[in-house]
Amino acid sequence: MKYTLFFFPITIALFTACVSQKEYAELEEVKNYYQTEAATADSLKNEYNKLSEENRQLEIEIRNTRLELEQYVVTNNSLHKSYQEVLDKFNRLADQSREVLSTTSYEKYSLQEQLTAQQEELDGKKKELQQLEYDLYSKQQQLSNIEYDYSSMKGTIADKNVRIQELEDMLSLREDDMQQIRVQLNEMLLNFSQSDLSISERGGRLYLSLSQRLLFPSGSTRIDAEGKRALQQLAQSLSSKPDLDIVVEGHTDSDGDATANWKLSVDRAVAVVNVLTSSGINPEQITAAGRGEFVPIVANNTSENKAKNRRIEVILSPNLDKLYEFLGTGR
Question: How far apart, in whole angstroms, are the C-alpha atoms of residue 94 and residue 100?
Answer without folding.
Answer: 7
